[in-house]
Specification:
alpha/beta, Rossmann fold, 6-stranded mixed beta sheet, 4-stranded antiparallel beta sheet, globular, ATP hydrolysis activity, ATP binding, P-loop_NTPase, ABC_transp_ATP-bind, ATP-binding
Length: 275
């Protein structure tokens, strides 16, 4: 059986940021956020990116989504290099790669109703049946139809994150990036959203890039994990192998230090009422 095709390839990704100039005689110095990071994500893979705050996770995601440019190195999406390409030519990436962010409150416009939030990408891409697609998406993320008339402040944190997921799914992407998408939620709600993401990835044959500071969470939804530390890729491999037999001291520290959601995942099944 042949290996699935690569969907994202990062080669030698390095990103330096320059600190502000302290004086005319002391120019700002370059601070590395990523150093020579390389990996391949194949279609259908569930790829986790783990690291503490400041490890380079956010910088890496911005580069994969063409929201920033590397100092050196390349990113290709489905065989097409994405950096140095004018924004007007990145329509394929804006459709095929969608991001669910950490804070659903901050990522949803409080002045818009849910129906307008979810349909915003459909309008941008000229979808012919927005009403039908809206109903399908709300059902897919486990929200009742009347949620469409609500504003974000009228929903719970878990419901708001379900709206964020529905919006990300609207243009039928190939890749779903979950950037710390459950870290702002209560543990019980976190388990429900993790199960939902796993179900949706399976149902829509998505490639998942799941970013977290918690290796135990990544183990629940991913098959492969990349561990970042101080901007460097220090470990990469099947998540069960990395969890059982970590090869880098930093990975061992992560496993020993982070809390586990295993008990919550045991207590709260997919059939639990949503929150």
């Amino acid at each position: 059986m042949s290996e699935p095709e690569p969907i994202i390839e990062a080669r030698g990704l390095t990103r330096h940021y320059r600190r502000p100039r302290r004086s005319l005689l002391r120019p700002g110095r370059a601070v590395p956020a990523l150093r020579d990071v390389s990996f391949t994500i194949h279609s259908g893979q569930r790829f986790g990116i783990v690291g503490e705050s400041g490890s380079g996770k956010s910088t890496l995601i911005r580069l994969l989504a063409a929201l920033d440019r590397p100092t050196s190195g390349t990113v290709t999406f489905a065989g097409r290099e994405i950096h140095g390409v004018p924004e007007r030519q990145l329509g394929f990436l804006r459709r095929d790669l969608q991001v669910v962010f950490q804070d659903p409150t901050g990522s949803l416009d409080p002045r818009m109703r849910v129906r307008d939030i979810v349909c915003e990408p459909l309008v941008a891409h000229g979808h012919p049946d927005r009403a039908g697609r809206l109903a399908e998406l709300l059902a897919a993320v486990g929200l009742p139809e009347d949620t469409a008339r609500s504003y974000p402040h009228q929903l719970s944190g878990g419901q708001r994150q379900r709206v964020s997921i529905a919006r990300a799914l609207a243009p039928e992407p190939r890749v779903l990036v979950a950037d710390e998408a459950v870290s702002a939620l209560d543990v019980s709600v976190r388990a429900q959203i993790l199960n939902l993401l796993a179900d949706l990835v399976e149902r829509y044959s998505l490639t998942l890039v799941f970013v977290s500071h918690d290796l135990s969470v990544v183990r629940h939804v991913c098959d492969t994990v990349a561990v970042l530390h101080a901007g460097e890729l220090v470990e990469l491999g099947p998540v069960d192998r990395v969890y059982r037999s970590p090869r880098h001291d930093y990975t061992r520290e992560l496993i020993a230090a982070v809390p586990t959601v295993r008990s919550a995942l045991t207590r709260f099944s997919r059939e639990e009422p949503q929150q």
